[in-house]
Write a structure and sequence with these properties.
The chain is an alpha/beta fold. It has 13 helices and 9 strands. The radius of gyration is 23 Å and the shape is globular. About 40% of the residues are buried. The structure holds NADP nicotinamide-adenine-dinucleotide phosphate (NAP).
Length: about 325
């Protein structure tokens, strides 16, 4: 079984590639920059150059492919818009997969996308789900809501570095999940027939608010956080202003996501049935407490080692003899 993974250099995509290789699948990755994807080749994946926004690059990448796993999404740092990558690009990929006779298509969506038609990425995810369901492909849609990996840059590092932690005034609690655990569901879907033509939430065991995560980080790091609260209305104004400029469209579309958080509605879903269908054990899924405990434990140990080395180097350095006048 040959898999084509799109977005394999991303946060989730690389875990999916790792898991697929570990489970013995033949893995091909569609990559925009082979140089950036060198680590995937070292792991044993085949790299094919391609870009979702260059539809001609897709059919050659799909030759002899049994299943497609789409873990791509537009990068905030890219010049390409969400619409170009997440809609036009995905439509091209689904059409090319169908034409190539691919047997399975796994799409990674966002939980509750149907509830936010005014948020561009949510609306695009919902439309892609519908497009895929009507494409006469054997699909599985996994609806995700937040990655634990994202919390390191957002909370853990600023707290360790005594920098400001930015949070929106109002924010919905989110059921974060480790991408390694999400990858287990993605790969398992390939071998469980009950997941065909079905949609499942794949989320963490409970939803966490920003304040709860900050308290947890403070406890684990032994440091107080410097919290800066951004009023939601300020973000709305920035969004409206950036809409006026073409360079700001991407910014505006991303800021629209604050509307999801502003509702205060938790991004969470029951996973009881999902674990059953996939034949996975919830006990094997890492909790947010364990994830952050492991992270802070590792970092604080490294910092202690560095501190020890610094003290040793200082002790060993020859003492400067004061300059004496002859
Ligand atoms: N992050 C979250 O919290 C979250 C929450 C819910 C759902 N999701 C969904 O989960 C999936 C993975 O998200 P992620 O955060 O892991 O993504 P990510 O880290 O931002 O990575 C995006 C990936 O897409 C690739 N890509 C971007 N534009 C492309 C194009 N034009 N052609 C081909 N590849 C392109 C990137 O390749 P380059 O390396 O070349 O840029 C990269 O591999 C996405 O579908 C996302 O919507 C994410």
């Amino acid at each position: 079984m040959t898999l084509l993974i799109v977005g394999a250099t991303g946060t989730l995509g690389r875990q999916v590639a790792r898991r697929a290789l570990d489970e013995g699948y033949k893995v091909r990755c569609l990559v925009r920059s082979p140089k950036k994807a060198g680590f995937l080749k070292e792991w044993g994946a085949e790299l094919v150059p391609g870009n979702l926004c260059h539809p001609d690059s897709l059919p050659p990448a799909l030759v002899d492919v049994t299943a497609v796993i789409d873990a791509a999404t537009s990068r905030p740092t890219d010049s390409l818009t969400i619409k170009q990558v997440d809609w036009d690009g995905k439509v091209a990929l689904i059409q090319a997969a169908k034409a190539a006779g691919v047997e399975r298509f796994i799409f990674l969506s966002i939980l509750d996308s149907e509830k936010y038609p005014d948020v561009p990425l949510m609306e695009i995810k919902r439309c892609t789900e519908l497009f895929l369901a009507e494409a006469d492909l054997n699909y599985t849609i996994l609806q995700l809501c937040g990655f634990m990996q994202g919390l390191i840059g957002q909370y853990a590092i600023p707290i360790l570095e005594r920098q400001a932690v930015w949070v929106t005034g109002e924010s919905s609690p989110i059921a974060y999940m480790d991408t390694q655990d999400i990858a287990k569901f993605v790969i398992r879907a390939l071998s469980v027939p009950e997941t065909e033509k079905q949609t499942f939430p794949v989320v963490g065991s409970r939803a966490w608010s920003a304040d709860e995560i900050i308290s947890l980080c403070e406890r684990l790091s032994g440091q107080d956080a410097r919290v800066t609260r951004m009023p939601i209305n300020l973000l709305r104004t920035v969004r409206r202003v950036s809409r006026f400029f073409q360079w700001g469209w991407n910014v505006a579309d991303r800021l629209a996501f604050t509307e999801v958080l502003a509702t205060g509605r938790p991004l969470h879903a029951s996973m009881d049935e999902v674990y059953q269908v996939f034949g996975l054990d919830p006990q094997d899924t890492i909790t947010l407490e364990s994830y952050l405990q492991e992270y802070f434990g590792r970092i604080l140990k490294k910092l202690k080692e560095l501190d020890y080395k610094k003290t040793q180097t200082k002790k060993q350095a020859p003492k400067k003899t004061p300059f004496k006048k002859s």
